[in-house]
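ok trying again, last paste got cut off:
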Amino acid sequence: MRTPLIDRRDFLRAAGASFAAAMTPSAWARAMATDAVFATAFVRRNGSYGAAVLSEDGKVLHAIDLPDRGHDVTFDPVSGRAVVFARQPGTFAIVFDHKGREEPLTIPSLPDRHFFGHGVFSQDGALLYATENDFDNAEGMIGVYDARSGFQRVGEFPTYGVGPHELLLLGDGRTLAIANGGIETHPDFGRAELNIATMQPSYVLVDRISGELIEKHELPAELHKLSIRHMDRDGAGNVWFGCQYRGPVTDLPPLVGKATRDKGLQLIEMPQDVLAGLRNYVGSVAANPLAGTVAVTSPQGNTLAVIEAATSKVLSAQDLTEVCGIAPDGKGYLSTTGGGVIVGPDGATLSDPDHVWDNHMLRIEAG
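nice, full thing came through this time. structure:
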């Protein structure tokens, strides 16, 4: 008998989890005087899990409890609700109001599915799309949830690949860009990767209404162990992606690229010292349209690199221990680390003794 990924009674109880720290009116007044707040998952020093909303100066405005480790957060500006997804192979997603006006709601996965940590809303906020694993059939799926009816699951369609991770809704409001990491996993084997010798990562465009495949692009055969994982869209509409390599540690394959409609995947060249510093692992990607840049982070290599979007030139690279979470802030970036440090765009740091920040961070425009 399969061991449950998480006791479903436990995470259904978590649907009514109260806020760990309520937002005070004065705190929100200070937050709304700035351009944005930021949402991220975390692990407390006592081993419990949660998701937090941070001010621009890195202060925790409020937090919610999670039944297990979270991964990424998505936000719907129409309803003002956010969703934090469980880390693979988690079986929950938690809907919460980033201003603390409503109690959180839990979305459980189907018994034969688990989440891959990422999702996105339709532009009108009516539907939520989440990357999922049909693990018995080794097939990536997009689960579709009705946000206006208690987030009931109303359908699914394939990702036309294995191991989907991050997805984006493109500017037309209809096309989903999906990163298929290519790695087969099954909850019977935890996070073990079952097909490294034969993995086939891909980048696909899918019609979110019909579920039909629009485009599919794969990396060259010699780079089939380069798992495409995280993405963001720059101001020109190009999709930038970061990869994680499953080949020999002595290899230095390109790890960052961009995708444009009808032109496929273009991997960029980076200086050898910067590429080596990423240690074959990009943990997060964030674009800053205001600055015309894209940032990539590597908690394995303790590196944050900034790239000029127009030229694909690396502008800077800095050492930052266990950096992973990254989001645009002004003409720079706010970043978080696994050591509990928050770094502002001016380089100022804030160390939080109570939190270990997780992989991703989302900028939420104030208002």
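cool. The mean pLDDT is 90. The two ends are 49 Å apart (CA to CA).
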